[in-house]
């Protein structure tokens, strides 16, 4: 069968029944392709997008399930860790001075300083600084003494039973005497905010 392009000349849509077989076949293929394309666009593409969303949701739900399963499987361990964390927190709270122990803290700092061989120039409370869950109680300290005594002093402060942190160290030579140094620092202790509100 030889292809003859002239058979496609003068084709009219009003007279499709009289078209040659090749033209009818081409029209049928074109219509079939258009119907499949429009059917895909109208029906299947939305279904495909919904399927992809379902796959993504399935993966999210699987991950959520794995996480929740892990928590459920280790619930006793998590509860034990929670109790341990609460005990640790309670112990840390006990390390913070309460309101009636705060004046004694100055006595402890004075004792630590004098037993380290330091002379106090200044030791005074500064205004309280209220934070979200605790109150910061700064103390300005100025002492005079030899360098190694500063190390003993700082070490003994760290060994106090209450939490005291040291900040803003400044060391300078006192009266042109290298053996006598001046140390300025700020010590901070903390009080739990709920206790202060009670």
TrEMBL record:
Where are the membrane-spanning stretches?
21-43
Q: Does the keyword rRNA processing apply?
A: no
- What Gene3D superfamilies does the database record attribute to this sequence? 3.30.70.60, Helix hairpin bin
What top-level branch of life does the organism fall under? Bacteria
UniProt KW keywords = Membrane, Transmembrane, Transmembrane helix
Report the protein name in the record. Answer: Type 4a pilus biogenesis protein PilO
């Amino acid at each position: 069968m030889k292809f003859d392009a002239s058979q496609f000349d003068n084709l009219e849509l009003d007279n499709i029944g009289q078209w040659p077989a090749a033209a009818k076949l081409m029209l049928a293929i074109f219509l079939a392709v258009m119907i499949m394309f429009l059917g895909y666009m109208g029906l299947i593409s939305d279904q495909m997008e919904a399927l992809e969303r379902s796959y993504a949701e399935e993966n999210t739900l699987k991950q959520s399930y794995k996480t929740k399963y892990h928590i459920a499987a280790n619930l006793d361990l998590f509860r034990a860790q929670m109790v341990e964390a609460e005990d640790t927190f309670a112990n840390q709270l006990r390390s913070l001075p309460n309101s009636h122990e705060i004046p004694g803290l100055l006595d402890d700092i004075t004792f630590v300083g004098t037993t380290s061989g330091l002379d106090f120039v200044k030791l005074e409370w500064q205004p309280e600084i209220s934070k979200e869950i605790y109150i910061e109680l700064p103390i300005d300290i100025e002492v005079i003494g030899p360098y190694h005594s500063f190390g003993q002093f700082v070490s003994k402060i760290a060994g106090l039973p209450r939490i005291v942190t040291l900040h803003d160290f400044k060391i300078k030579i006192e009266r042109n005497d290298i053996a006598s140094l001046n140390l300025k620092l700020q010590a901070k202790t903390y009080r739990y905010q709920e206790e202060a509100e009670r």
